[in-house]
Amino acid sequence: MVDSHTDTGAPARLGRWVSGALMLLGLVGLAWAGYAYWESRSIPDTPSSSERSELIVDNPDYVVPPPIKSGMLYATFTLRNPGSRPTRVVGAGDFCTENVCPVRIEGVPMVIPPGESRQLVVGCGVKLFGRDAFSVSVPVYYESAPGTLEIIELSISGRNPPDLNVPRDTKKSE
């Protein structure tokens, strides 16, 4: 039996080489198209700066005036939206320290319209031992664009002044 597709010389070898090269070129093109599609899907959909809103705190570092006593303390912050879109304040974190813990954030979630301001009241439980000072940071979470959360840090601190009539060394000298 005679095979009609047998190698008949140089033109058949050249044809196989050309078809192999074209197949390889096709696979490379397909791989490139898949990579380009993957890259286009992996670019985050971040809104442009004109679509984002902003939040400004007039006094982000609240210092409690003395005398400070143990118990509940309330700090009021003014949040302003200078942008052209409403800003939604979602909530706040509560990171406690040794002697202070923000326990209550009043009025969240809230929406601040463009060009307006709102008050944010943070309630803290304070336990002072003697003349101790305290300090705590409170992260506030807000949406700068739909689905995009931003953080702005607020701080609350305070210190009672030393009592000049009480000696610093309480040990009796002999």
Walkthrough of the structure:
This protein is an alpha+beta fold and 174 residues long. The chain folds into 2 domains: 35 residues; 111 residues, Immunoglobulins (Immunoglobulin-like, Sandwich), CATH 2.60.40.10. Helices cover 19% and strands 39% of the residues. It is built from 1 helix and 9 strands. The strands form 2 sheets. Strands 2-9-8-4-6 form a 5-stranded mixed β-sheet, with no helix packed on it. Strands 1-3-7-5 form a 4-stranded antiparallel β-sheet, with no helix packed on it. It is elongated and about 110 Å long. The relative contact order is 0.18.
Summarize the structure.
The chain is an alpha+beta fold and 174 residues long. It has two domains: 9-43; 49-159, Immunoglobulins (Immunoglobulin-like, Sandwich). It is built from one helix and nine strands; from the N terminus they run αβββββββββ.
